[in-house]
Every structure is written in structure tokens, then in C-alpha cells.
UniProtKB/TrEMBL annotation:
Protein name, UniProt field: Indole-3-glycerol phosphate synthase
Ranges of residues in domain Indole-3-glycerol phosphate synthase: 5-247
UniProt keyword Ubl conjugation, yes or no: no
Record's keyword terms, sorted: Amino-acid biosynthesis, Aromatic amino acid biosynthesis, Decarboxylase, Lyase, Tryptophan biosynthesis
Species of the source: Anoxybacteroides rupiense
Reaction(s) catalysed (UniProt annotation): 1-(2-carboxyphenylamino)-1-deoxy-D-ribulose 5-phosphate + H(+) = (1S,2R)-1-C-(indol-3-yl)glycerol 3-phosphate + CO2 + H2O
Name of encoding gene: trpC
Amino acid sequence: MLKQILATKQNEIERIELPPRYHFPRFSLCTALKNAKRSIGMIAEVKKASPSKGIIRPNFQPVEIAKAYEQAGVDAISVLTDQTYFQGHYRYLIEIKETVRLPVLRKDFIIERLQIEESARIGADAILLIGEALSPKKLHELYEEAYEKGLECLVEVHSRQTLEAILERFTPEIVGINNRDLQTFTTSLDTTKNLLPHVPPSCVVVSESGIANAYDLQRVRAYGAHAVLVGESLMRHDDVMQAVDELYKEVRSDVRPS
Ligand SMILES: O=P(O)(O)OC[C@@H](O)[C@@H](O)c1c[nH]c2ccccc12
């Protein structure tokens, strides 16, 4: 599946017409996660659909969702901008930057430099770089390019092998451990448990995907994650502000919910 997404993306990149430059206040994702407002940081995602689940939120109002996230006290917002597979758009990111004062992560499949210029122009504070989608060399080049343009990167990995290959080249500031296997779409929080001990202590670590309830949140916190990235379980709630609160409910991380 990842291969197919990347092939589509490559085609789309050939047709990119760069948007004008928007001038928004910038916010650091890394700083926001280091100074998380609650017991563990949260990047809340604005996502209408996904290739594995289809439409997740039928009545999709990206700006309203982002405002509710801000009121709920999340630390940052992730916006899906891929159109073909996630029904996103970079326009959503622009509208959200116009409205909320939080770091905004552009969630897309970034594989070429041109997409970094595009991300800078639309006002993204950070971009996603996927370890499984790029060679370590290319990933490092895009990482440097992004920081030169004032964008931070969330460097996402799913396997120990990918993580080690990246660390041989450089140490990213922010590492995302994706609990979802992008080939099969299955999620397991054990991915965070298994990979986290191999991430250098200087990195801010985000546990991504498959966080369904307060128990899951406490579990990845116990594994040592500094933050979580949550999409679907928030998007399925009518009231996303309440959904954030419910994730932060106090539960014992060693007791499974019934
Ligand atoms: O909806 P979830 O299971 O809470 O997951 C959010 C986020 O981690 C997921 O959307 C994601 C993680 N890595 C990605 C790469 C591309 C697109 C999407 C993603």
C-alpha cells in the first residue's frame, strides 16, 4: 500500500503549482512537546478519511475541529493534506493556521524538496518524514532542507531496522514511533514498547497511531513516550473536546479496560 501511495505522490509532484507565501506566526513543535501542558504531550490530528478505514468523519469541519482541540488544551495539531488517500487538502492547513495559535504539523508523504517549499509557503510549522518511505540519505537531505526553511520534522519509524539506519546518519530532534504498519495497517502499541529503548535520550519521542483510550495513553506514557499523535479516536467523537478530556482520564496503565 505504501508503495502505491508513493507512486501516486510522485505523479502529483510533477503537477505542483506552488501557492503564494502565507505569513503566519511560527510555533515550535519540539518546544511545545517538551513543555507539554499535561502528563504527556498530545498532537491531535485533523483527518477526514484514511485508506484503511474510509470516511472517519462524515461531517468534516477542519477549522471547527482545530478550534476545539485548541480549547481542549492539546499541544499541537496535525493536518492531513494528502487528497487522494486521506481526502485532505493544504487549504485546511492554511485555514487552521489562520485560526489557532499552536504548532501545526503537515501530515503528508513528503518525498521531494518541492513539497518542502510548498509546506513553508502554506505556513506549516513542521512536516512528517517517513523512514519507511525514504532512504536514510534522502531523508537526511530533506530534513536539512526543512530546517533551513524554518520547518521542523517529525521523523517517523516503524521498525528497529529503519530507526538504526537513520541513526547511523544523524539524530533527529523529534522521532515518531508509528504503531501502525503502513503495509498492513495493523496497529500494536508494542511497537512503541520495543523501539523506544533504542531511541537516543536527546530525542523527543511521539507514539503515533492506534491510541484508542485513556489506558492506551497511559501505556505509551509508561513506555517513556513524551507525546502521542491521535487521530481516529478523536475524529469518531461528535465532541472532540470531550474526546481529548477522556483520553487524559486517570487510569492505571496496568489494568486493561473491560
Ligand atoms: O488515527 P490514528 O490511528 O490515531 O493515527 C494517527 C496518525 O498517527 C496516523 O494518521 C498516521 C501516522 N503516520 C502516518 C503517515 C501518513 C498518514 C497518516 C499517518
